[in-house]
Amino acid sequence: MMIEKQMYQNLLKRKPNILGEDTFYHYAILLPMIKKNGEIHILFEVRAYHLRRQPGEICFPGGKVDEHDTSYMEAAIRETCEELQVTKDVIHDVFPLDYIVSPNGGIFHLFAGTLSQNDHEIKPNQEEVAEIFTVPLSYFQTTKPKSYKVHLIPKPASDFPLELIPGGKNYKWQIQGFNELFYEYKGRTIWGLTAKIVHHFIHLLQEMDLLKS
């Protein structure tokens, strides 16, 4: 009985985590802001066209968290330094945004911060980044993204034991889905995870009344 009581006491003190978090890949991403023409801009990257994954897509600096990173924030700053080829001392006032748990087995730890370097002085790493560009923060303040539904239709594997579940082959699977956001700015399309991060960031600023109406 004493053992059971001790177990119960330990369980009462337990802090919940994300179920299966130890099996997820962790990524850190930074939304960089820069001062340009007297106003705040958000800086974006265009992924190098020779990359195997998502070539030519618009994104923010970021990548997989290394075992040597002491924190997710440090990982986001390291990735930014590597991709934009800037030094750590030009990155300031980094703060956390919400994180995203992906159904594909990844957790994205999001941050935002400011760069004290001019965008025309930044020479990104051509192995990862084809080019950079900026968009005024005010554009996202006044522009709502377009939203489009993506349906995920369940398809059991050939060895899935349908005979063990009620309904068998006629089981009524729920069709899951999510919304993809799109911003269009001067011929560029910002969508997917990048658009979702921007939308979350703008919503956060508005919620905290940090944007002028």
Number of strands: 11
Radius of gyration: 21 Å
Uncertain regions spanning at least 5 consecutive residues? none
Q: What fraction, in percent, of the residue positions are helical?
A: 10-25%
Q: Please trace the helix and strand order, writing H or E for each element.
A: HEEEEHEEEEHEEEH
Mean pLDDT: 92
Beta-strand content: 25-35%
- Count helical runs: 4
Ends: how far apart?
A: 62 Å
> Structural class of the helix and strand makeup?
alpha+beta
Task: Please provide a written account of the structure.
This protein is an alpha+beta fold. 22% of the residues lie in helices and 35% in strands. It has helices at 2-13, 72-84, 137-142, 192-207, and strands spanning 25-36, 39-47, 58-59, 62-64, 91-96, 100-102, 106-115, 129-136, 146-152, 176-185, 188-191. Strand 1 (25-36) and strand 2 form a beta hairpin. It starts with a helix and ends in a 6-residue tail after the last helix.
Jot down its keywords:
213 residues, alpha+beta, three-stranded antiparallel beta sheet
Give a brief rundown of this model.
By secondary structure, this protein is an alpha+beta fold. Helices cover 22% and strands 35% of the residues.
Topology record:
Blueprint (H helix, E strand, L loop, with lengths): L1 H12 L11 E12 L2 E9 L10 E2 L2 E3 L7 H13 L6 E6 L3 E3 L3 E10 L13 E8 H6 L3 E7 L23 E10 L2 E4 H16 L6
Parallel strand pairs: 1-7
Antiparallel strand pairs: 1-2, 1-4, 2-3, 2-8, 5-7, 6-7, 9-10, 10-11
